[in-house]
Amino acid sequence: MAQLWGGRFTKETDQLVYNFNASISFDQKFYKQDILGSKAHVTMLAKQGILTEQEMKDIVACLDEIQAEVESGKLEITDKYEDIHSFVEANLIDRLGDTGKKLHTGRSRNDQVALDMRLYTRLEVLHTDALLKELLEALLQIMEENTETIMPGFTHLQKAQPITLAHHMGAYFEMFKRDRQRLEDIFHRMNYCPLGSGALAGTTYPLDRDYTAELLGFYGPTLNSMDGVSDRDYLIEFLSAAATIMMHLSRFSEEVIIWNSNEYQFVEIDDAYSTGSSIMPQKKNPDIAELVRGKTGRVYGALMSLLTTMKGIPLAYNKDMQEDKEFSFDAMDTVKGCLALFTGMLRTMKFNKDVMRKSANNGFTNATDAADYLVNHGVPFRDAHGIVGQIVLYCIEKNIAIDDMSLEELKAISPVFEEDIYDAISMETCVNKRLTVGAPGKEAMEKVIALHKEYLSSDWQDEIAIPQEEK
Question: What is the pTM of this model?
């Protein structure tokens, strides 16, 4: 058992205890972050005269060698080591002897793991944001192509008013745009370096924490060493943002599943994102959408797990905090996978525009506009509401749409109706006369689309600087 401690102990740790305590099975995921942080640490130690320039160069070269061998498969990370920190340091000492033993000068595993987790999470924030941008680009393309594609809008899953496919996709654009804004906000708040906090009370060595932070692309060092080693707020915030992303994806998936049903037939999912049935040859199942919807619970679970872990922990570091990793790693991978697959499904999805329009026309989605017509001709709104209710009831009995009624039939219910009612309740009129900001009218939508294109033309990630080798 390779451990970084033991001098105070007189007998071996029980194997079951060792296994229970070890984290190498999952924290090996951030071997790259551990090596990156170690290189920055020894570079700072040399700058401060705590290590010699040659010692620093030897350690950095050996760390690069260890990373290259891990990535080529020549060096295997095994459960012989307690955690990723002991793996890196033990291999360094094996190769450099006493020089390798100097790596940990002025550092604790507490601030080391705090750094590694922050570096790993920071990169996950950037990767998730990039996937969200790709999804927004896919949505914007659909919006641009469908400002005149009429479909029913729903409330309570009941047809309500006519909208366009561009307008419907635009609602999801807003959701995922807010998700990106949350990630940007989290990045800026978390981007401070805990290395140099020591176990909890800093160190007597003359460390230059500002320099270490600069080397690692942080805005600066954390300002309280106890908080530096025990803070996981940034991870809770990221998991909360991830849970919100999954909630949005799940809502979208639910609609895709409904739209893909035989009853709706609004969309046809590409064969690459569908599966069949082992017994029913006619089936084409929306498995990707269903799995995205189902995997949302995994991400919710990770958030609740970490909140529960952190709720009773006194300052500063406690071993409970090792539980911040497994569920978080799973949630990070889950949300990235779901975003990538959903975007691919969306880009290849076929929209049945004629079916959408027919559904809007047959669902009395223009009833509100018929009422507005009466109001504009002097009928009090409450009376107009009642009149159009009678019209809808009449159409249901006749199995026709409002547009199918003759002028005589309309006048029999209200003499206010004239020939211009047909233009007033046409689907195009119902949609395009709604020109307020955020409405589905073509003119309003084109203004919003222009704003979205401008938004996507720049990227907040272009304004940040993190080490190239981290990416």
Answer: 0.91
